[in-house]
Each structure stands twice: as C-alpha cells, then as structure tokens.
Amino acid sequence: MRECPQIGKGTLLPTNPTQNLVVAGPYQYVRNPMYCGVIFVLSGEAILLGSIYLLGWFFLFWLFHLVILFFEEPGLVKRFGEEYVICGKMCTDGFHV
User: Fold this and answer.
1) Major place of localization (predicted)?
2) Which residues, listed in sequence order, are joined to residue 92 by a DSSP beta bridge?
C-alpha cells in the first residue's frame, strides 16, 4: 500500500486522504483492495472450515462493502472527476451484483 503516500500524496485514513487518484499496484485491478482481501479471506475460511458463522461474517462484511461503495463513490467522482470515472471503467469493485 505504499502507492498511497508516494503517488497519492496522502494516506488511507479519511483524516488525510490522497490528493491524487492512485491507479497503480493493486488499485489498477480493484477499487478497494483491502475490502476485497478481507472478503476473500472470510469466504475462504468459511469454506475451508465449513463454518456457518464465518459465512455469516462474510455476508455481513460484503454488505458493509456495498454500503461503503454506495456512499463513497459519489464523493470520489466529485473529488477526482472524469479521471475517476475512466478508472472505474477499467477496474472493478471486485464484486458485481
């Protein structure tokens, strides 16, 4: 995640957001690589361990991810403009419903 301070001139924290749109590293493939990573780990653990509880956590976090996308996307479009819209067409949120 070194791309955020180097390219974006900021951090992942909402208190110090990036000034530039980061489209390098994992961000060139998915919009939220950390959320996607957690979702993939939870789904893998649920399958490997056969745990209904982990499967429940997986679905809750997936729903949380969708809510975050719903509220975050308009702000990112407003902040980065056409550059973000073009980037959004090239990469994915990882989970198309």
Assistant:
1) membrane
2) 30
